[in-house]
Write a structure and sequence with these properties.
Blueprint (H helix, E strand, L loop, with lengths): L1 H18 L1 H8 L4 H28 L3 H29 L3 H5 L5 H16 L2 H23 L11 H8 L1 H18 L4 H27 L13
Length: 228
């Protein structure tokens, strides 16, 4: 299947997610709350544009079933995943207004701008390739961290792990993988290579997002001036 090819090529990047101190810190409960707060603020903005990409998928869909899938993913992100962020914001003392008015980091802008650009330019296959790495890798991370004894019961990070390891989120990820396979099935190799390039690029941006959150970096460069 096409997603097997994608996974095999992205595996070194995805393995690095699981070894990143931010992800490991969620798993063992050692992550500093200020770093998680920074992550939730940036990720909330990310999800807003992520929803826009799903909406473009519904617009560009050529079949009702794929239109419905993009709509379901849009609904789930808006009403379940973003609710998780709003709940965490409440625990961290961040108002909904402050959450929505967060200043985006350069990594966030690079990621969302890339997805929106590719989604606007391409077909539903490009849209699927844009969103797949995030949905699928979060499910892999959630399931992996859930294997750590007591991780899902952690008083603060447990809800995050349970969300992304849940049967419901796993079903969403599997649905996205199935759609990607269906859309890529009859594509010539040149187009498959293009879809793979998008998937690999978004996988790399996922890693940069974890790193950005861990170091609370507003800019990619380590500069006091840029971070001021």
């Amino acid at each position: 299947m096409f997603t097997d090819r994608l996974y095999n090529h992205a595996k070194p990047i995805w393995d690095a997610y699981l070894e990143h101190p931010f992800v490991m810190g969620i798993g063992d409960g050692s992550l500093e709350l200020e770093k998680f707060k920074f992550f939730m603020e940036q990720d909330y903005l990310y999800l807003i544009d992520y929803c826009r990409v799903f909406a473009l998928g519904s617009v560009k869909a050529t079949r009702l079933d794929s239109m419905a899938m993009f709509a379901d993913l849009l609904h789930s992100t808006l009403n379940e995943e973003m609710d998780l962020h709003r709940n965490y914001a409440g625990k961290l003392g961040i108002s909904k207004q402050a959450l929505e008015n967060t200043t985006p980091s350069s990594t966030l802008l690079a990621y969302t701008s890339y997805m929106l650009n590719k989604a606007h330019q391409g077909s539903e296959a490009e849209v699927a390739a844009c969103v797949l790495a995030c949905t699928w890798s979060y499910n892999v991370i959630g399931q992996t961290l859930n294997e750590n004894e007591g991780a899902s019961d952690h008083e603060f990070y447990g809800d995050w792990i349970k969300m992304y390891a849940s049967d419901e989120f796993t079903e969403l990820a599997e649905s996205m993988k199935n759609l990607m396979n269906e859309l890529a099935d009859d594509k010539p190799e040149r187009e498959k290579a293009h879809l793979e390039e998008i998937f690999l690029h978004t996988s790399k941006l996922e890693y940069l997002f974890w790193d950005m959150a861990y170091h609370k970096k507003m800019w990619l460069e380590n500069s006091n001036l840029l971070n001021s």
